[in-house]
């Protein structure tokens, strides 16, 4: 048996048209079709949506690297070795000018959760030979993609029946709060938000401080949009003139923290055939603490899950898909 095939779907989104951030409504979405797909025209397959981290989009998962195989090569190897059943993989593009959407609906960026649930899932089920229904449809991702996978599992269990979250954003007090004053300093030094954004857009090389600042802006666009707030429709967690922390905005961020969502949405996670989460024990955004707390609360609620830790940080951890993809494929396969 040979390898699988990747096709690029050029998808025109109605939901994303006219978004305030000015991002394109046409997206290119790679779809991995497993090795037997072309030769077994009557066979249907489970499907997993794989979400990229902040500053990423689906095509990034196909980047070739001798030490970090692209997602299609990785899935081919798992199937060839017998480690994983065959499965279709969909790689959405939910990138925004602010680095990402967190896969949420926001008046500042667009309705990216609706784009996935209402547009992309039906399109894929109609275009490819998937096994329809949430029992055979999963979602996975790393970092912001892990956050997106977990939140989609929490909020849309009617659509997704299995979730894998790699180093997903959670416990916002640890992963975001320390960067708020740094963000404020960078924007003040640039002469304001629009001035900073213009400078950022014009730079060929982005610095560490640039990406930290963009990350905070992107999170604010996702968690605290305000249609009436000029110029970008975003409420920031700090006052840019005085530097004062804005508690009322921060409370809106916390409403999106998986740790805060968990108890009210426990039944959604309880219904999953697989809930897998992992993190590195040296995560630079302290996300391992959030994952441990999340696992402990899942245990207290009697929710079956798998929690693993790895002796590494936040970057270059694509190898963990070698663990999660076979688990997802088995959980989503027909009985």
Say how many strands there are.
Answer: 10
| Helix-strand pattern | EEEHEEEHEHEHHHHHHHEHEH
Computed structural class: alpha/beta
Share of β-strand residues = 15-25%
Poorly predicted segments: none
Distance between the termini: 24 Å
Roughly what percent helix? 25-40%
- As laid out across the biggest beta sheet, the strand order is 1-2-4-3-7-8-9-10
Radius of gyration: 20 Å
Average pLDDT, rounded to a whole number, is 97
Shape: globular
Largest sheet: 8 strands, mixed
Tally of alpha and pi helices: 12
Give a brief description.
This protein has 335 residues and is of the alpha/beta class.
Plain-language structure description:
- Helix 5 (180-190) packs across helix 6.
- The chain has 335 residues and is of the alpha/beta class.
- The model has no long low-confidence stretch (mean pLDDT 97).
- It starts with a strand and ends with a helix.
- The strands form two sheets. The chain has an eight-stranded mixed β-sheet with strand order 1-2-4-3-7-8-9-10, sandwiched between helices. It has a two-stranded antiparallel sheet with strand order 5-6.
- The protein has helices at residues 71-80, 112-127, 144-155, 172-175, 180-190, 193-202, 208-223, 247-254, 258-261, 266-270, 287-300, 321-332; strands at 5-12, 26-33, 47-51, 88-90, 105-106, 110-111, 137-142, 162-166, 274-280, 306-310.
- The chain is built from twelve helices and ten strands.
């Amino acid at each position: 048996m040979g390898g699988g095939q990747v096709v690029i779907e050029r998808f025109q989104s109605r939901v994303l048209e006219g978004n305030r951030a000015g991002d394109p409504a046409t997206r290119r979405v790679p779809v991995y079709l497993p090795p037997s797909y072309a030769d077994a025209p009557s066979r249907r397959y489970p499907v997993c949506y794989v979400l990229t981290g902040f500053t990423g989009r689906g095509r990034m998962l196909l980047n070739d690297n001798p030490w970090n195989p692209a997602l299609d090569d990785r899935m081919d190897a798992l199937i060839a070795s017998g480690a994983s059943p065959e499965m279709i993989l969909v790689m959405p593009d939910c990138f925004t000018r602010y680095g990402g959407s967190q896969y949420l609906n926001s008046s500042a960026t667009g309705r990216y959760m609706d784009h996935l649930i209402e547009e992309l899932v039906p399109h894929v089920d109609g275009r490819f030979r998937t096994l329809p229904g949430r029992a055979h449809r999963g979602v996975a991702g790393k970092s912001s993609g892990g956050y997106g996978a977990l939140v989609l599992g929490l909020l849309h269990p009617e659509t997704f029946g299995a979730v894998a979250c790699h180093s997903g954003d959670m416990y916002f007090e640890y992963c975001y709060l320390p960067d708020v004053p740094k963000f404020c300093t960078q924007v003040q030094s640039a002469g304001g938000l629009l001035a900073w954004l213009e400078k950022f857009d014009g730079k060929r090389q982005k610095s560490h401080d640039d990406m930290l600042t963009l990350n905070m802006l992107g999170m604010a666009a996702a968690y605290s949009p305000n249609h009436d707030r000029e110029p970008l429709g975003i409420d920031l967690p700090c006052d840019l003139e005085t530097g004062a922390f804005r508690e009322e905005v921060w409370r809106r961020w916390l409403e999106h923290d998986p740790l805060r969502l968990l108890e009210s949405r426990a039944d959604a996670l309880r219904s999953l055939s697989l809930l897998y989460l992992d993190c590195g024990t040296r995560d630079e955004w302290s996300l391992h603490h959030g994952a441990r707390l999340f696992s402990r609360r899942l245990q207290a609620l009697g929710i079956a899950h798998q929690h693993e830790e790895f002796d590494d940080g936040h970057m270059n951890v694509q190898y963990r898909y070698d663990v999660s993809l076979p688990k997802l494929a088995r959980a989503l396969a027909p009985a």
